[in-house]
Design goal:
Structural class: alpha/beta
Largest sheet: 5 strands, parallel
Strand order of the largest sheet: 2-1-3-4-5
């Protein structure tokens, strides 16, 4: 994790300098770009392990940049953390629906941001350590997930899932018929004490359900509690 490569797309020089200083002790290799266009250009030639993406950017904004990033094959599973000055729910929800893994609202604590980046890197690192044994493969009904190969299927169709959607599906398939609160779900896929709103969890699960088609009905909403993955008889 110490040799991870981080791309920061941020047009404010003061914030760029602040982040570079805060991350200097982490041992990460930093790439800093001031626009979405420049960030996309870099991603087509260099591999990175995490992306910090501002929403308000000159030229194409962060949300449009995010959508284009997800079209780059080598970036599909790279954790992306969005930053926003306004913290408007509509921007946050749009970012999550487009595949962002997380978001932070400015002004943010560099320590909190670094913790978020570490969490994203850790998830990818743990995924890469899977060995391909039977314990990394789960199947319920038409849904099958192979964590070692990082692939999921609905019947014969391979699913195109964002990193967080993949983690959610893995959690549900490996814990069928158990009711989880939203906080328990977030703790399971991101770790303890991770500040994410209930609305964010709902948006991520809604996106997963859509991609699962009819099988999405297997994820049940338990009113006033959370969610349960129901096994088909």
């Amino acid at each position: 994790m110490s040799k991870a490569s981080i791309l920061i797309v941020e047009d404010d020089p003061a914030i760029q300098e602040l982040l570079a200083h805060a991350m200097s002790k982490e041992g990460w290799k930093l790439h800093q770009e001031k626009s979405g266009e420049d960030g996309l250009k870099l991603l087509k030639t260099k591999k990175v392990d995490c992306i910090l993406l501002d929403i308000m950017l000159p030229g194409i904004d962060g949300l449009k940049t995010l959508k284009k990033i997800k079209e780059i094959e080598q970036c599909k599973n790279v954790p992306i953390i969005m930053t926003t000055a306004k913290g408007e729910e509509s921007d946050i929800i749009t970012g999550l629906e487009l595949g962002a893994d997380d978001y932070v609202v400015k002004p943010y604590s560099p320590k909190v941001l670094i913790a978020r980046i570490r969490a994203g890197l850790r998830r990818n690192e743990e995924s890469g350590l899977n060995t391909g044994t039977s314990s990394t493969v789960w199947q319920q009904g038409p849904l099958k997930l192979d964590a070692a190969r990082h692939v999921a299927f609905n019947g014969e169709e391979q699913l195109d899932l964002f990193a967080t959607e993949f983690a959610l599906l893995k959690h549900f398939l490996s814990h069928p018929e158990i009711v989880f609160s939203r906080n328990q779900i977030i703790e399971a896929i991101r770790g303890p004490d991770y500040p994410v709103t209930d609305r964010s969890v709902d948006v991520q699960i809604l996106g997963l359900r859509k991609k699962l088609g009819h099988a999405g009905d297997m994820i049940e909403t338990i009113r006033s509690v959370g969610y349960r993955f129901r096994v088909q008889e």
